[in-house]
Amino acid sequence: MPKYTYDYPRPSVTVDIVIITDEQDPHVLLIRRKNEPFRGKWAIPGGFVDMDEALAAAARRELREETGIRAPRRLEQLHTFGDPDRDPRGRTISVAYIAVVDARKIKPQAADDAAEVGWHRLMRPPALAFDHGRILAEARRWLGATMR
Question: What DSSP string runs through 2-60?
Answer without folding.
Answer: -----SS---EEEEEEEEEE-SSS-EEEEEEESSSSSTT-EE-SEEEPPTT--HHHHHH
